[in-house]
Specification:
Helix content is 19%, strand content 34%. The protein is an alpha+beta fold and 243 residues long. A hairpin with a 3-residue loop joins strand 7 and strand 8. It is elongated and about 75 Å long.
Length: 243
């Protein structure tokens, strides 16, 4: 019943800009301004943000999320319950329920990879604060593929100091991975994804920049929301080197 109520509210308050079907396909002559409207029927777009982000934008307008100020604030025109109903309606416009919702885009943990699928470039750097020079950076490129897959490329870079006090740098062992979401349920707050990665011996083992061996790695990634805005994230990991 909530999405049906939300549809009526959407038609009365939002359709003049976003279109009756939510696709945003309105000519400039009808809109009165030159600005592309978001397409809520596009699952790739509509699933990336959490309900709370949409609620903030509707409550406070475009300025709340650095969007164009042409998006007005509705906090004085609509109640919290009415805004929630509109969001419930918008969620029905993506017909493919395999797309993982933005509610699962939790902060990146120190020792676990995300189960969430996304388009992102991540750089992690560690350095030794004592002893010989040892600086390592991992550059990770993530590209979402379809509703439940992701390509991942990991390029390690290192700067080391050997026993002769000579510094040398270079690339480490390149990783090529595929991440597959197997379960995501917003109501229970549970997400599970699997990842398989081939690690190529592109780094120099003699210079301590690589292992000198092919390897295959497997990861089971999961997260669970808990009461009071707590989140538990975990990872089960296995590595199988060729030697």
């Amino acid at each position: 019943a909530l999405p049906i109520y939300g549809q009526a509210l959407f038609l009365a308050n939002c359709a003049s800009c976003h279109g009756v079907d939510g696709s945003g396909k309105r000519p400039v002559s009808e809109l009165g301004f030159e600005l592309s409207m978001p397409d809520f029927t596009d699952c790739s777009f509509a699933t990336r943000e959490a309900d709370a982000d949409w609620s903030s934008t509707i409550h406070r307008g475009g300025r709340a999320r650095a969007f164009p100020r042409l998006m007005p604030a509705f906090d004085q025109a609509l109640s919290d319950e009415e805004i929630d109903a509109i969001i419930a309606h918008l969620r029905t416009l993506c017909r493919d329920k395999r797309w993982v919702r933005g509610e699962f885009n939790f902060p990146l943990g120190l020792f676990t990879e995300k189960a969430f699928l996304e388009d992102e470039l991540v750089a992690n750097t560690t350095m030794a604060t004592k002893g010989p020079t040892d600086i390592e950076t991992e550059v990770i490129f993530e590209k979402r593929v379809g509703p439940d897959g992701q390509i991942e490329v990991t390029l390690p870079l290192g700067l080391k100091q050997d026993s002769g006090q000579r510094r040398h740098g270079g690339i480490g062992d390149l990783g090529l991975a595929w991440k597959q979401n197997v379960y995501a349920n917003v109501d229970s707050g549970t997400i599970v994804s699997l990842l398989g990665e081939a690690v190529l011996p592109t780094g120099s083992a003699r210079r301590d920049l690589g292992t000198g061996s092919w390897a295959f790695e497997t990861h089971a990634l999961f997260a669970q929301t808990l009461p009071d805005d707590f989140v538990f994230q975990g990872q089960i990991f296995g590595a199988f080197p060729a030697r």
